[in-house]
Structure formats: structure tokens, C-alpha cells
Design brief:
alpha/beta; Recoverin, domain 1; NADH dehydrogenase (quinone) (non-electrogenic) activity; about 35% helix; four-stranded parallel sheet; mitochondrion; FAD/NAD(P)-binding domain; about 575 residues; globular; membrane; NDH-2; FAD/NAD-binding_dom
């Protein structure tokens, strides 16, 4: 009886819960056995099999580049609804601010790189990496065309296409040669780890060649003349690192070469480190003069041969001077990547240095393509382009005039959409927007101010003069990558509940707040354990204390604990044993 009761209960369970279909229950009772079999498609047709739930297709995000912008985007992206494909010929992220240290053995190359697969392997997002270079972007068909890394065994012959729903272009830029003859053939650049390693070998080779007994003193002097073209942060830091390397380490190993070494900086502008505070610029030029580094200002390079670099000094009647050299490092800013130039022609952005994006980092004219880092620049919209729409949106009673109260209701959205307004008020030392409107209206009480459209245009006519392009720095690229990842993380939520400013030309609000760069300061290592620091709030510090601040900040910004440990170890080794001068 017990067995029969168990059989009845099992049969009832199969009828009540069709999900138990095709389940066989075998029971043993007193040496015998019962087999209970249930089928969801029972003869009475009372229960039917539930249809399979269709799999939700993930949006395909293709990221081109593994530099500061691309890696920051990948690190912060945590929405699992995306399928991410990373394409780059470089399968690692490099901490580029330490490249000058790699050139002289202060830090080893392996210490500043982190494999991209290690960065993304523990993420909840599906991320795959392909070591290839993108050679064409097809915005119309949403495809990118790639070929294997030229350094691979396939020799770049097997081309392939990758589809995307969203494309993130973060492929950086190329060195800007200004089409100067001989630069590509004879100069060293300093943008990649391979560049730094090549410079390091070249420095050691120069000292080894100069030690050969068959050379004349004139030839030794030429070989040991190191020229840096460009007085920006990279060029200045390399010159400082090279000076320390020569005087602290190499002269001990090559004592006969000491009197022949010369380091020269060629800068076309009136000062080096133009983007820094004048106090830093003056200190750097005086320090380099004391250290024996020759800084030639107003010198424009017109040609580079295998043994001479030709310059034209401003104010010297156009006379060209030939300077013998042993090695040249070219550090004069960035130029457009060929792939980016081709893409810009495709979408009608010709005669530009970089891809133009809106304030949300979308490429203008391409809603599904984003560009960030050195390959792009934000095309900030001007207030005067939208002045009529702003006036109409603020004039809620359609009176044809605008009061202070009406304008104050939209001022937060205006300042968020057009950051130049806030900068203008700050530079003019105005307390609020009422002061700006009062200036246009004249001597009128704040409460009584009413402006028509022409008076409103007059009040804001000079606001757009505060617009500035962001610098092409690692700090900007990293912040852009983080911002864009946060936007992707909240894409669905922002579609339902927009959080951005008012759309002045349309209805509703923008999905997200526009990107805003926050400057956290900048450093300029000047050698001799001295660094210049310019921090927010016009705070300037120069000296040994700033060097230790530089150490701590750069160590904290490294991408992993592994690289932090390696770099700190390299710094310690250098303090104890000096820099490595072997040619490897």
C-alpha cells in the first residue's frame, strides 16, 4: 500500500509541475520495484511545454587602441550587456609618462607595461582581444577592417572585418614631423616603449663608438652631441634624464668621453615648457644653463641629414646653420594618424588635426562612433550659435523680454552645456549672471532688468572667447575613457531618465552630462632630483620635495600592483647601484 501511495503522489506531482517532464523515478519497495514515468505532453492535453526564452543579443562594442583612453574605458566598463572586442597591434598598456626614464635605464621597459588581457580578465563584461591593426573604418556599414600585426608571422596578409554596434576610436596619434625632410629617416621619436629602448641602445652605442682609438676628437665630439628637438615636457624630461645618466653613471665608465659630451635643446618658441607657469619656465632655463645643457630658443629645424641638423634662427635674416650631431630625439607634438585622416575624409571632416566630437565624445555626424584621446578633439558648441534658442527656452511667458529670474531658472543648464559662460564670469570677477546682464543693460536695479533678444546677444557676445581646446595629454585621455565607460554603464537607465542639461534646440534633456575635464596638475622633472610641479589653484613648487611628490603620484597612477612593485624596485636599484648601462 505504501508503494502504491508513493506512485500516486509521484503521478500527481508530474501533472501539477510540467517542468518535471521526462523524469523517471525508480523506487524499491520490499525487494520489488516500481517505475514512475511522467510526460508533460499528457494525453489529456492539460499541460503544454513552455516556449524557450529567446536569448537577448548583446550590443557589440569595438575598441580600437590600448593606450590611456582605451584602457581607462575598458577598466571602468562594468555593464555585462555589452560584448567588447579590443583591436590593437600592441597587446599591452604602457605608462608613457615614464618613457624618458626608460631611455636611460632609470626604469626598465617591462616595469611600465601591463598586458591588456591581464587588465580585463577578471571583469564581468565579455572582453576579447585581437592583436591586429585597423586600416579602415566603414561608418556606413558599421565595420572596421583589420590586418594582423605586421610583426607577426602572418606578415599582415590575412585581412578581416569586424562588425560593431558602437565603435570607440582610441588609437592615439603619430609624431608630428611638419614634413621636415630627413626627420623620419634619421630621428628618434619617443611615443612607444620600443622608441625608448631604441634610444637607450643608441646612447650606449654612441659612447662605445666614441671610445674607439681610430676616431679624431672632432668626430668624437659629433658622435657625443645629443640633440633634442622640442622644448615641451617630454623633450625637457628626456634632456634632464640624459644629463643625469651621463654625469652620474656613464662618465665613470667612459672617463675619456666626459669632455666631448654635449646636450642641446632646439625650441622654435621663445621659451621651453610654454604650457607651464612662467616661474617654472624661468627656473628650468636657468637650471639647464647651469648644468651645461644648451637651450637654443627660436630655432626651427628645416632639414635633417645623417650627420647634420639644419636650423633657421628667427630674427637672423633667415640664415641656415648646420649643426653636427650623433643622435636626434624628435619631440614636437602630435600629428594625425593615417587611418584617422582617411576616416575624416570619409565623413567630411577635412582640414582638421583630429576627429571632431561633440561634448559627449561622439564623432560629429556618427551617432554610434566615439573618439577620445589624442586622435580626437571636442568641438565645443558656441553660445552665440544657439543664442536665439536659449532666449526662447528661457522666455517662458513668451513676452519677448528676459528677466533675471527667468534666466536664473536655466543658468545651471546653460553653464553645464556651455562651460565658457562660467569661465567668463570667473575671469571677469562677476558674482553671478545678474552682473553680466546688468553690464549689458546699464545702471538698472537687478530686479528691474529686462532684456530683449538684441540686448541678450550683447550681454553674451564675448563669452565664447573663453573657449579652449584640451591638451593632448595622458590625463585628458584617461578622464575621457572613464567618462565614456560610465555613460555606457548607464545607457539604458539614461534613456528612461535623462540626467543631462536641457536641449535648447529640441525638447527634453540630453541623456548625460557633457564631458568636463578636471585638471589635476602637471609635473616637469628637471634632473638632479628636482621637479617642477604646477597644481590647481596656481600652486607652484620646484625642488627636491616636488620630486618626491612626483614619485608618489606616478607610483599611485600605475595600472597594477605588479607594475608599482617593479617601478619602485627600479627606483631603489638606481639609488643604490646606479643606472644600467648595458646594451640590451
Amino acid at each position: 500500500m505504501n508503494g502504491l501511495s508513493l506512485f500516486k503522489r509521484a503521478s500527481r506531482a508530474f501533472d501539477d509541475y510540467p517542468s518535471l517532464a521526462k523524469l523517471i523515478v525508480v523506487c524499491t519497495v520490499s525487494g520489488g520495484g516500481y517505475v514512475a514515468y511522467a510526460d508533460a505532453n499528457s494525453s489529456n492535453g492539460a499541460h503544454a511545454v513552455a516556449p524557450p526564452v529567446p536569448e537577448i543579443r548583446k550590443k557589440k562594442v569595438v575598441v580600437i587602441g590600448t593606450g590611456w583612453a582605451g584602457t581607462s574605458f575598458l577598466k571602468k566598463l562594468n555593464n555585462p550587456s555589452y560584448d567588447v572586442q579590443v583591436i590593437s597591434p600592441r597587446n599591452y598598456f604602457a605608462f608613457t609618462p615614464l618613457l624618458p626614464s626608460v631611455t636611460c635605464g632609470t626604469v626598465e621597459a617591462r616595469s611600465i607595461v601591463e598586458p591588456i588581457r591581464s587588465i580585463v580578465r577578471k571583469k564581468s563584461v565579455s572582453v576579447s582581444y585581437c592583436e591586429a591593426e585597423c586600416f579602415k573604418i566603414d561608418a556606413e556599414n558599421k565595420k572596421v577592417y583589420c590586418r594582423p600585426n605586421p610583426d607577426s608571422s602572418m606578415n599582415g596578409k590575412e585581412e578581416f572585418a569586424v562588425d560593431y554596434d558602437y565603435l570607440v576610436i582610441a588609437m592615439g596619434a603619430r609624431p608630428n614631423t611638419f614634413n621636415t625632410p630627413g626627420v623620419v629617416e634619421h630621428c628618434n621619436f619617443l611615443k612607444e616603449v620600443e622608441d625608448a629602448q631604441r634610444i637607450r641602445r643608441s646612447v650606449i652605442d654612441s659612447f662605445e663608438k666614441a671610445s674607439l682609438p681610430t676616431l679624431s676628437d672632432e668626430e668624437r665630439k659629433r658622435i657625443l652631441h645629443f640633440v633634442v628637438v622640442g622644448g615641451g615636457p617630454t623633450g625637457v624630461e628626456f634632456a634632464a634624464e640624459l644629463h643625469d645618466f651621463v654625469n652620474d653613471d656613464l662618465v665613470k665608465l667612459y672617463p675619456a668621453a666626459k669632455d666631448f659630451v654635449q646636450i642641446t635643446i632646439l625650441e622654435a618658441a621663445d621659451h621651453i615648457l610654454n604650457m607651464f607657469d612662467k616661474r617654472i619656465t624661468d627656473f628650468a632655463e636657468k637650471k639647464f644653463h647651469r648644468d651645461g645643457i644648451d637651450v637654443k630658443l627660436g630655432s626651427m629645424v628645416v632639414k635633417v641629414s645623417d650627420k647634420e641638423i639644419s636650423t633657421k634662427v628667427r630674427g637672423n635674416g633667415g640664415e641656415i646653420t648646420a649643426i653636427p650631431y650623433g643622435m636626434v630625439v624628435w619631440s614636437t607634438g602630435i600629428g594625425t594618424h593615417p587611418v584617422i585622416r582617411s576616416f575624416m575624409q570619409q565623413i567630411g571632416q577635412t582640414n582638421r588635426r583630429a576627429l571632431a566630437t561633440d561634448e559627449w565624445l561622439r564623432v560629429e555626424g556618427c551617432n554610434s562612433i566615439y573618439a577620445l584621446g589624442d586622435c580626437a578633439t571636442i568641438n565645443q558648441r558656441k553660445v552665440m550659435e544657439d543664442i536665439a534658442a536659449i532666449f526662447k527656452k528661457a522666455d517662458k511667458d513668451n513676452s519677448g523680454t528676459l528677466t533675471v529670474k527667468e534666466f536664473q531658472e536655466v543658468i545651471d543648464d546653460i553653464c553645464e552645456r556651455y562651460p565658457q559662460v562660467e569661465l567668463y564670469l570667473k575671469n571677469k570677477k562677476m558674482r553671478d549672471i545678474a552682473d553680466l546682464l546688468k553690464m549689458a543693460k546699464g545702471d538698472v536695479a537687478k530686479e528691474a532688468i529686462e532684456l530683449n533678444i538684441e540686448e541678450f546677444k550683447k550681454a553674451l557676445s564675448e563669452v565664447d572667447s573663453q573657449m579652449k581646446n584640451l591638451p593632448a595629454t595622458a590625463q585628458v585621455a584617461a578622464q575621457q575613457g572613464t567618462y565614456l565607460a560610465n555613460c555606457f554603464n548607464r545607457m539604458e537607465e539614461a534613456e528612461k531618465n535623462p540626467e543631462g542639461p536641457i536641449r535648447f534646440r529640441e525638447e527634453g534633456r540630453h541623456r548625460f552630462r557633457p564631458f568636463r575635464y578636471k585638471h589635476l596638475g602637471q609635473f616637469a622633472p628637471l634632473g638632479g632630483e628636482q621637479t617642477a610641479a604646477q597644481l590647481p589653484g596656481d600652486w607652484v613648487s620646484i625642488g627636491h620635495s616636488s620630486q618626491w611628490l612626483w614619485y608618489s603620484v606616478y607610483a599611485s597612477k600605475l595600472v597594477s600592483w605588479r607594475t608599482r612593485a617593479l617601478v619602485i624596485t627600479d627606483w631603489t636599484r638606481r639609488f643604490v647601484f646606479g643606472r644600467d648601462s648595458s646594451r640590451i
